Amino acid sequence: MxxxxxxxxxxxxxxxxxxxxxxTEISSMCPNPRCQEEGTTRLLLVEIPFFRExxxxxxxxxxxxxxxxxxxxxxxxxxKGCRHTLKVxxxxxxxxxxxxxxxxxVQIAEVDLEIPGNTRKGTLSTIExxxxxxxxxxxxxxxxxxxxxxEDSEKIENFIEKLNTLLKNPSFTLVIDDPAGNSFVENxxxxxxxxxxxxxFYKRTLEQNKMxxxxxxxxxxxxxxxxxxxxxxxxxxxxxxxxxxxxxxxSCNAINKTKMKVVKIPYFKEVIIMATxxxxxxHKTNEVKTAGGFEPKGKRITLQVKCIEDLSRDILKSTxxxxxxxxxxxxxxxxxxxGKFTTVEGMxxxxxxxxxxxxxxxxxxxxxxxxTLV
Length: 374
What we know:
Shape: elongated
Structural class: alpha+beta
Helix content: 10-25%
């Protein structure tokens, strides 16, 4: 007999798509004080790939045609703020998905555009949508400005023309700075790195913590959230204990725990093994660092693999170590991959996955170039 308690309930957050499945409609009063008739609010719980869950809400009134939309993160304020810097160099970049929370500041230095935080609601849009919405907002009061303030109206009209030029010939840098850490810019190369997109995390200032309501308005210093380790070795034995400390997933930015263990390898030295397994997206990372400093001399180790048992030999590879397999004309330089503590078989599998990913990226680049030329 099947245990009902063991059945995993489906997630209420659905992957983002053009399908209307999962939309909840609620009757609500129109916020327009001149209308206050009954309108419809639509709620959609969306899971954005390589980001997190968000709640998209949209209101429309059939009587006065008032409408608005809002995006709220389904999680909490992140431990650190984030700053996304994207170089927009082609028309395709204008279609990147962008999530901006209420606290996010949007900047385009080429046209001196800055949209301060806490001046609008959170949005789920594209880069083109952000610029288009800015243009529409500036055009709303233009007829009144032309009649009362003609000089200001002309300056705004020139600025609108600059924004429209960005949509026709995209070549600018978009910066989204969010102290809450809940903003997002789509990485079109995910899970690989995007050379045109830079993501930075930073510790919030006292003013930013006050703005987010994380500290009292009369606070005089930023609260210290760092982990305090025992000061004496009697309280903690690193050779026996597995340390845990919070980190952000490098793939989806969810808060995880990284495990760290000091291991003594026989006839060698102590090494530090760190591993992270994201429960949110399943991304796994591991890294090995030597606990000592650099040796006076380098080292070259040659192993002849003659039987299946040799594939089970343990290997400790540092970040500065290169690998060679002459039978396959295969050679990797130092810093090609991170430090690892694995086996001969595991190392060959890692090399195969790395080469498969490289070939996939090259094939994707070739196809894109071919389509562009045609």
